[in-house]
Amino acid sequence: MSNLENLIYLAPISGLMAILFAVYLAYRVLSADAGSEVMQDISKSIQEGAKAYLNRQYRTIAVAAIVLAILIAILLPGENMNGIKIALCFLIGALFSGSAGYIGMNVSVRANVRTAQAAKTSLKKALDISFKGGSVTGLAVVGLSMLGVSLLYIIFNDIELVVGFGFGASLISLFARVGGGIYTKAADVGADIVGKVETDMPEDDPRNPATIADNVGDNVGDCAGMGADLFETYAVTLIAAMMLGFTVHNFFVRSDINEVAVLYPLLLGAAAIIASIIAVFCVRLGKNNKIMSALYKGVAVSSILSLLAFFVITNGLLGSKHLNLFFVSLVGVIITILMVGFTEYYTSTEHRPVKLIRKSSDTGAATNIISGLAMGFESTILPVLTIVVGILVSFFVAAGPSIDPAMGLYGIAIAAVAMLSTTGIIVALDSYGPITDNAGGIAEMSSQSAEVRKITDELDAVGNTTKAVTKGYAIGSAALGALALFADYHDKINQLLPHSAILDTRSFDLPPSDAVFINTGLSTGLNLSVSSPLLLIGLLIGGLLPFAFTSVTMQAVSKAASKVVVEVRRQFKAMPGILKGTQKPEYAKCVDIVTAAALREMVIPGLMAVITPLFVGLVLGPAALAGVLIGIIIVGLMLANSLNNAGGAWDNAKKLVESDGEKGTEAHIASIVGDTVGDPSKDTSGPALNSLIKVVTMVAILFAPLYAAGGLISHFF
Q1: How buried is residue 559: exposed, middle or buried, by Cβ count under 10 Å (0-12/13-18/19+)?
Q2: Which of 80, 214, 218, 457 has the fewest Cβ atoms within 10 angstroms?
Q3: Predicted local confidence at residue 527, as pLDDT
Q4: Contact at 8 Å (CB) between 100 and 176?
Q5: 3 state SS of 518
Q6: Residue 111 and residue 439: Cα distance in Å, rounded?
Q7: For residue range 470-493, what is the model confidence (pLDDT) as tens digits?
């Protein structure tokens, strides 16, 4: 093995460095003052609720994971016990993904009270603790993801086996997103309906029986959920790029290294992890005391350092002849910047969309809802056009003068890897949100001074924007990553089918110009004619799935929230001392309600994601399944963007009404209605669509051998 081939070990080393740095940050955060006994008791209640939920959730998922692992081992026997190896990778992926979220959330539920206590000293100190607490999750996500993918590839030397790791991560992501989203929004909506609307209570009022459940939900939804989401996106995008690397490695002429195109994305990811570690130290308040500017410094430093490293790696590993791939990575970083900018524009209180929704609240809830929906739909335009341009530029820059399709698709995958270079910092921004939200709740419930509450409110207001921004980032990166995975699916079907067995997708005697063929440069190919009824059926099913999934998840939030409302009303009626402040609410009752509901309701969405691609592949065949993948990527991207941005805009429109001093007015009530509708949009259904897209695609790739020869019905077409 040459010295250059030893470079692959930089990938697991960088992952280990991220994990160790996360441990260091956790130590720093936990060493801070945890405040008074009252503050610690409130924080402990949140900790216990979050821990109880995650323990029950992971026990439920563990059963499903073990059953799936057995099925994988049986259905994919292959050679050299490959089925067992894939099943092992699957379990490791699930374990690492769950661990990343669990570790991060356990620090977050302890950083909250320390942030509230630090707010007694200064905004600077409170920001430092809350961001470092969020950084634990961010670095645990990228560290464990890189460590898992790279080590398994080094051990097995077969990226096809490592696909199992990506599927395990996808499964955890889906359940964490759906279950956590249902939990957090059922508690939030239930608390708001009775607390804010019916009894005119302020946010986080300790008299509200659903307050603790609401604060727990912030962590299991936005910390553990987002951590699992981007863990999965990071892992599967790396795997997709590495798989495509095998189709193009002959383009890179090196006598001293094998499979250089497979190594390249790993080195990019390793360099970006180091850049993220350095960037953590750059997040600090400037003279203007603007929190968002301080947080964006970290993103900027991470992006700039990553790009510098990408240039050095590309030039050193591939040579100046292939510097076009550096420019492709630049495209990925630019897409990240634009996606963050677009999301902030549509969800920040400083810009037109939120101000328009706030103004519409003056005339009632109906106009508030209409404006929010309009802004959500409008918000899909710029992100989708940006991704379209990014795909085109990445493809043609990487494809070179000869316009080689295989290199073009590899370029898109590299752009996606580059887009995920800031994942460590982006997840830190997201986890910062629930920490500051909880800090505000603890300050309110422990009756801290107005000065302390002012600081926690400032931190929390920015946290709402960072949570929306990170969801927009996750959606965009999921779209590019899923496109790379689609190319991997197509290539895998090509490899499994002999030329004579290519699925016949007859174009009914139409001239060749009327048929579209997807070609990745291989000698054989899965021909997908636009006149094939199987492809069209697949497109319709793929387009339908995000809507069906959204319906199920939103109904789950509605049903669980209704139970919370009934319970809170019962407590107010049965224990009148609660409203007088002389009697303590039974917080555990609401926690139990949303925990049971989340665990029960996450099953159907999970089954939809796994069963649909298997059914289509086995019954309708690989061409129909290709249509499903295309349909779900396109529709899922737009629906997720719309739901996320509309929800974020509704939330901040309500805060704008409150900042105008109009609490208790008709406009405030209208804005609360909009915020309540937006809650499951931005925190349950919208972000969970990312995971849905990836799970469906990973199932298609993993079980390709089962349906490569055509489905039961496809033989009749």
Answers
A1: middle
A2: 80
A3: 52
A4: no
A5: coil
A6: 8
A7: 888 888 888 888 888 888 888 788
Cα–Cα distance, 410 to 328 (Å, whole number): 10
Q: Is the pLDDT of residue 551 over 90?
A: yes
Per-residue pLDDT tens over the stretch 129-159: 999 999 999 999 999 999 999 999 999 988 8
Give dist(CA 58, CA 256) in Å, integer: 45
Mean pLDDT computed over 297-318: 92
Torsion of CA 271, 273, 274, 278, to 10 degrees: 140
Tell me which H or E stretch contains 172: helix 159-191
CA-CA-CA-CA torsion for 292, 297, 299, 304, nearest 10 degrees?
150
Which distant-in-sequence residues (6+ apart) come within 8 Å of 319 by Cβ? none
Backbone angles phi, psi at 506, to 5 degrees: -60, 140
What is the secondary structure of 250-303 as a DSSP string? GGS--SS-S-HHHHHHHHHHHHHHHHHHHHHTT----TT--HHHHHHHHHHHHH
Count helices and strands in the chain by DSSP H and E runs = 24, 0
- Cα(435)–Cα(431) distance, integer angstroms: 7
Q: And the tokens for 503?
A: 């699925």
> Residues with Cβ < 8 Å from 580, sequence gap 6 or more?
none
- CA-closest candidate to residue 329, choices 404, 235, 410, 274: 410
* For residue 505, pLDDT beyond 50: no
Give pLDDT, residue 518: 37
Cα separations (Å) of 377 from 361, 388, 679? 19, 17, 17
Structural contact between residues 494 and 520, judged by C-beta atoms closer than 8 angstroms: yes
Residue closest to 681 by CA, chosen among 653, 637, 644? 644
Q: For residue 635, what are its two tokens? A: 């529709």
* Cβ within 8 Å of residue 415, ≥6 positions away: 328, 329, 331, 332, 335, 390, 391, 394, 480
Query: What residue segments make up the domains of the chain, in order of their start?
Result: 5-716
Whole-model pTM: value is 0.87
Residue pLDDT, tens place only, 406-447: 888 899 999 999 998 888 998 888 888 889 988 988 988 888
